[in-house]
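Standup notes
- DV: blocked on the single-chain target, sequence here:
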Amino acid sequence: MTASSLKTAFSYISDVMAVNKEYLIKLDQQNGDGDLGISMVNGFKGVCDYLSSAEEMEFGQLLMKASSVFNEIAPSSLGTIISFALMGMAQSLKGKAEVSLSEIAAAMKNGVDKIMERAGSKPGEKTVLDSLCPGVDTLVKNAELEAISALKVAADAASEGAESTRQMRSVHGRAAYFKDKSIGILDGGAVVGNLIFEALYQYAVNEV
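- DV (later): unblocked, structure below
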């Protein structure tokens, strides 16, 4: 993967968020403020706009700036959390102009670790981590496979993780005020994590 590949991959994520904008809004309206779809569409489009004109070729610089762009354009709790993930990835890929799937997987692992460090959260708390963590862990374990196969099993794991949030009780953010009423509802953040992996799988199918 090169800088050009990174731009294409983000365009797939941006497109998937746009298609699912209203779905994410409806999910967030159940126990949030309803802006999830808007912030995710704006955030990923903003990153795509930045990448399309960026002259940098080094992943660390690209992803660190993308982190800043996302946090500025999507000033929400999940926007900040995703910016943490991009920051962690940037630190892992510093100095690299071309990376393998295993390096991307390791960087994504560093990204979710950065979320847990900075946000003080962990899997099992009905957040984006409940889809990102199983997706990333599965990708790391299968990174020696062809990209399509590795991302397919990772996307499946992320989907299962998102679905598991139905049985969880929210402990973070505005959703935590709903306490047991949050049980039975899919977490919007976890769905976003799932959509990211779905988009990366589609990127692999069509571009790799």
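- Follow-up: The CA atoms of residues 98 and 195 lie 25 Å apart.
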